Amino acid sequence: MGPVTRELPIVEVAPGVSVALFNMLGDTEVTEAAGAELARMLPAGVDVLVTPEVKALSLAHVISRESGKPYIVIRKTQKPYMVEPVAREVVSITTGKPQLLVLDGFDVSKIRGHKVAIVDDVVSSGGTLHSLRQIIEEVGGEVAAVIAVFTEGQERPEVTALGHLPLFPSEAERS
Ligand SMILES: O=P(O)(O)OC[C@H]1O[C@H](OP(=O)(O)OP(=O)(O)O)[C@H](O)[C@@H]1O
């Protein structure tokens, strides 16, 4: 990202599949650099950012600060204080088992009738993106942009990203 570089460790996330693990959580320098760059790439007309917890949360904060657009966090646990939550199950490449994506009903009015940019750190299998889209459209929002630091695996022209990461065959597959 700009002048900021990182070596990414290769980590096996499923039998036969390894990724270059990009974890920006707690990395202020990367988060600030990527957030500033992605904020400049945000298309005109976007009203609100929507991000899944947790690794992309600080990225959304920086893009929000830089662009002046508010952001909403889709949680991965349903909380007792939520009002009529809207939930979808998802399996992401790095977690490999079902997780929940939950929109607090309190935030629905900030999405309904608005143009939304989905913000994530990585779009890989697309499972998280698919479920986020479903939730946003179910409550009457329009996904106007998808913003990520990296796409991974397959090319995704619909995603505005700073770079692309390959998937790696695991050791056992190579030998
Ligand atoms: O395109 P996909 O295959 O769905 O993968 C991308 C998602 O996976 C990762 O989250 P993860 O499940 O690791 O959760 P975390 O951010 O809570 O650690 C990443 O932050 C994306 O949200």
From TrEMBL:
<dbReference type="Pfam" id="PF00156">
    <property type="entry name" value="Pribosyltran"/>
</dbReference>
<dbReference type="InterPro" id="IPR029057">
    <property type="entry name" value="PRTase-like"/>
</dbReference>
<dbReference type="InterPro" id="IPR000836">
    <property type="entry name" value="PRTase_dom"/>
</dbReference>
<keyword id="KW-0328">Glycosyltransferase</keyword>
<keyword id="KW-0808">Transferase</keyword>
<feature type="domain" description="Phosphoribosyltransferase">
    <location>
        <begin position="42"/>
        <end position="159"/>
    </location>
</feature>
<protein>
    <submittedName>
        <fullName>Adenine phosphoribosyltransferase</fullName>
    </submittedName>
</protein>
<dbReference type="GO" id="GO:0016757">
    <property type="term" value="F:glycosyltransferase activity"/>
</dbReference>
